[in-house]
Amino acid sequence: MHDLIITGGTVHDGFGGQGRTADVAISDGRVVGIGTGFGPARERIDADGLVVAPGFVDPHSHSDTVPFLSEAQPFKLWQGVTTEIVGNCGYSCGPSGPGGLSPIIQEMGHAFAGFGDYLDAVDAAGTTNHLAPLVGHNTMRIAAAGFAAELPADGLERMCAFADEAFSAGAVGWSSGLEYAPGAFAGIGELTALARVARRWGRTYATHMRSESEGLLEAVDEAIAVARATGVRLQISHCKASGHAAHGSATALLTRIEQARLSGVDVLGDLYPYEACSTGLIAVLPTIASEGGETRLRERLSDAGERARLRRIAEDPVDYAGAGLWREVRPAGVTITRHSDPAVAGRTLAQVAGERAPWDVLCDLLLADPGADTVLHTMDAADVETFMRHPLVSIGSDNDVPAGLVHPRTYGTFPTFLGEYVRERKVTSLGEAVRKMTSAAAAQFGLSERGWLGRGAAADVCIFDPETIGHSGTYETPDVRPNGVRWVLLEGVPVIRDGEFTGERRGRMLRA
Predict the structure, then answer these.
(1) Which residues lie below 8 Å from residue 312, measured CB to CB, with a gap of 6+?
(2) pLDDT digits over 234-277, tens only?
(3) E-strand spans in 359-475?
(4) Least crowded by CB within 10 Å, which of 57, 322, 332, 396?
(5) Which of 137, 291, 290 is CA-nearest to residue 209?
(6) How far, CA to CA in Å, does 126 sit from each of 71, 244, 400, 458?
(7) DSSP percent split of the chain into helix, strand, coil, nearest 5
(8) Three-class SS of residue 204?
């Protein structure tokens, strides 16, 4: 007798083809067959009129500390996501070292001496859905050298040792966040050395590139050069053409990726289906503002001459490397989502500034709270759809921890893609859309048992209504439960049952 049979649904196996009406039989946490005539089962799910798909795999998540929240968190299960890749943009919860902790990790409230200690802590706490971890370049650099621009003599050797230890513990790859300090201070030689360690372990390199605006093409060339020199698998995180000067660059970026693949580089990308990004407000300043850590940052922002120097760097029309995001944004398009002053949250930089100079107000806001967060409206709809249509680009959320005013992508990325872009705008077929959310991401991170449906696959399953799936959350009210996801299974056990969360933490930390 089978543990469970899903009957009568339109099954999409995750490889991009058309769906077919069939039953899915599950036993011992595995798919044991897709077809008909499977006989009795302990439980049956009637999926007539619904799509039966592999559980969605989010290649770009910031849910690293979600397992440590006091309550189970189903915000990704309600989107159909069964596995998240965490540790992106160069930041992970370990390793820590004498260089001090990243402000981001301090805000997370969880930092671990060794990367394996973090994995063990997640196992002990329990996770609501599966997580697969990356180790962060920024985190390793801070452990080796703090926020100094130059590494000490043994700094790179120590970073390679940190990476080795992380891969041994089970990291599925490593990530960089080259628009952020101190990762922004790294040269290509440093990145290549770490990529060689990853290649030796057969792991993936995911990069938030050095620029996603005017330096976009040079940045993707650098990422591809690292992958070409080492043979590492490369994931271009949250593909975008950010800021007015870069609008229309999507095709050029995709051409670079296509040409790299034709030359033998294993490179893919991901994006989220929105025209606004979200990051720390500090990213609007030049990266040099953060050299030396928070104390030096506050000293610079307290000095009128330093403020003026930083603004000159931010507005330099020629040398925009490390200039920060100031040139990409307009004050009315900068919404502060989290700040130590609650009166600021939810307001734009233009609204907070009033008659004052926005640059000085930006500096004052960061002087008061260097860890403030923001949503930045910087992208063009045509570029977003160009990336979305391309077969080499999967769907990833770049979500925040689900608390407070955050980008709606945290709560609605996958239903928004399926509802607004697939059903309504028809940017791609449903079968291809499922592939973009499943096998395309899983394979790039070595998750061979997930992201597809077939005999022997892990029985992570999403059952959704293609006619109703969607998300009505907004930038003002993001935390709205999506519509349309009816059932979600983790290794054969329902955790979303007829649209409702069972309350269980049945996920696992998936170690490589």
Answers:
(1) none
(2) 999 999 999 999 999 999 999 999 999 999 999 999 999 999 99
(3) 373-377, 393-395, 461-464
(4) 332
(5) 137
(6) 10, 43, 19, 19
(7) 35, 20, 40
(8) strand
Q: What is the pLDDT of residues 96-131, one digit of tens each?
A: 865 455 554 554 567 898 999 999 999 999 999 999
Q: What is the pLDDT of residue 320?
A: 66
| Domain-wise residue ranges, the chain | 2-54+455-469+478-501, 56-279+378-444, 284-374
**What distance in Å separates the CA atoms of residue 485 and residue 506, rounded to the nearest whole number?**
18
Provide the token pair at 160.
């390679």
Q: Does residue 364 contact residue 352 with C-beta atoms inside 8 Å?
A: no
Distance CA 280, CA 376 (A): 10
Would the pLDDT of 339 be above 60?
yes
Mean pLDDT of the chain: 95
Which tokens hold the place of 42? 């302990």
Taking 50 as the threshold, does the pLDDT of residue 332 lie above it?
yes
Q: How many residues are recorded in the chain?
A: 512
Sorted by sequence, the CB contacts under 8 Å of residue 229 that are 6+ apart come out as: 192, 195
Given a contact cutoff of 8 angstroms between Cβ atoms, the answer to whether 478 and 423 are in contact is: no
Query: Residue 411 corresponds to which tokens in the numbers above?
Result: 């709560």
- Residues in a beta bridge with 399: 61
Kindly state the helix (H) or strand (E) to which residue 5 belongs, with its residue range: strand 2-11
Q: How far apart are CA 367 and CA 347, in angstroms?
A: 18
Residue 316 has a pLDDT of 81
* Cβ atoms of residues 482 and 469 within 8 Å: yes
282 vs 279: CA distance, rounded Å: 8
Q: What is the DSSP string of 213-247?
A: STTHHHHHHHHHHHHHHH--EEEE-S----SGGGT
Residue owning tokens 């989107």: 79
CATH T-level assignment (fold) for domain 56-279+378-444: TIM Barrel (3.20.20)
Where does residue 286 rank: exposed (0-12), middle (13-18), buried (19+ CB within 10 A)? buried
Q: H helices within 147-215, ranges in order?
A: 155-169, 188-201
**pLDDT for residue 366 is more than 70:** yes
Residue 312, both tokens? 């000159």
Collapsing DSSP states into helix, strand and coil, what is residue 66?
Answer: helix
CA distance 167 to 197: 9
- What CATH number does the domain located at 2-54+455-469+478-501 have? 2.30.40.10
**318 — pLDDT class (breaks 50, 70, 90):** low
The CA distance from 410 to 402, in Å, is 7
User: For residues 43 and 461, what is the distance between their CA atoms, to the nearest angstrom?
Assistant: 15
Q: In this structure, which amino acid lies at residue 111?
A: A
Pairing of the two strands 51-54 and 461-464: antiparallel
- Looking at residue 99, its pLDDT comes to 47
Residue type, 122: V
Three-class SS state of 176: strand
207 touches 267 (CB < 8 A): no
> Rg of the chain's alpha carbons, rounded to an integer?
22
